[in-house]
From TrEMBL:
Signal peptide: none annotated. GO terms for molecular function: hydrolase activity; metal ion binding. PANTHER family: AMINOPEPTIDASE (PTHR32481), AMINOPEPTIDASE YPDE-RELATED (PTHR32481:SF0). It comes from Methanothermobacter thermautotrophicus. This is M42 family metallopeptidase. Keywords: Hydrolase, Metal-binding. InterPro entries: Peptidase_M42, Peptidase_M42_aminopept. The keyword tRNA processing does not apply.
Length: 215
C-alpha cells in the first residue's frame, strides 16, 4: 500500500535528491502494453481505454442510416461529469455506455463477487450499484439480447452491487434518456496492470455493430 511503498532514485543525500526531484513531481508505474497467450494482453488504464477502442471500431464498421454519436467523456471516475454535459448537449433518443467490468476468473475472487469471465463475451449490465446506478431500460435490454441471440454472439448478464458507469448520469438527463451498458470483462481494473482479451473486444464490437444496424 502507499503506507509502505517508497521510491529509490539513487540519491546519496537530501541535497542530492532535491536536485533530481521536487515535491509535487508526477510519477507513474511503468506498465507498457504487452501481448500474452490466448489473445490476451495487459496494460495500464484499460478502464477505460478499452471502451474508447470499442467505440472507434464500431464507428469504423457500422453502416446505418441512423445518426450515431461517439463520445469520449471525461471524469467518469469522479462524478460522471463528462457524461452529464454530453448527454444534455446531444439529447439522444438512446445511449449506451461502453466500459469494462470486473472479470473474477482468477485466484482471490469469488464467482458471486464478479461472475464475468474472460472470453465469455461482452457483459450486458441490467443494474449496478445495487440499483443506485443504472437500471437498464427494458427495450434497450431486449434490443441487445435479441441481437446477441439472433447473431449467435455470446454475452454475459450482470447485476452489480458496486460501481457504476456514465449510463447512470445519462439516463437521468433531461426528462430521462433510455440507456444501457455494454462492458468488456477485464481483470485487475483500477490497478497498474489490467488484463483483457481481444476475443471479448471483437465480440463486443460485433454485437454493437449488429445491434445498431437493426435500428
Amino acid at each position: 500500500t502507499h503506507d509502505n511503498m517508497f521510491i529509490d532514485i539513487g540519491a546519496s543525500s537530501r541535497e542530492d535528491a532535491e536536485e533530481l526531484v521536487a515535491v509535487g513531481d508526477p510519477i507513474t508505474f511503468h506498465a507498457p502494453y504487452s501481448e500474452l497467450a490466448n489473445s490476451r494482453f495487459t496494460g495500464k488504464a484499460l478502464d477505460n481505454r478499452i471502451g474508447c477502442l470499442v467505440m472507434v471500431e464500431v464507428l469504423k464498421r457500422v453502416e446505418t442510416g441512423a445518426t450515431v454519436y461517439g463520445v469520449g467523456t471525461v471524469q467518469e471516475e469522479v462524478g460522471l461529469k463528462g457524461a452529464k454535459t454530453s448527454a444534455f448537449r446531444l439529447n439522444p433518443d438512446m445511449a449506451l455506455a461502453l466500459d469494462v467490468t470486473i472479470a473474477g476468473d482468477h485466484p482471490g475472487m469469488k464467482e458471486e463477487e464478479a461472475p464475468a469471465k474472460l472470453d465469455g463475451g461482452p457483459a450486458i449490465i441490467l443494474t449496478d450499484a445495487s440499483g443506485r446506478g443504472i437500471i437498464t431500460h427494458p427495450r434497450v435490454k431486449d434490443w441487445l439480447l435479441e441481437t446477441a441471440s439472433e447473431e449467435d454472439i455470446p454475452v454475459q448478464i450482470e447485476v452489480s452491487e458496486g460501481g457504476t458507469t456514465d449510463a447512470t448520469a445519462i439516463h437521468l438527463t433531461r426528462e430521462g434518456i433510455p440507456a444501457g451498458v455494454v462492458s468488456v470483462p477485464t481483470r485487475y481494473i483500477h490497478t497498474t496492470v489490467s488484463m483483457a482479451s481481444m476475443k471479448d473486444i471483437e465480440m463486443t464490437v460485433d454485437l454493437l455493430v449488429k445491434a445498431i444496424e437493426r435500428l
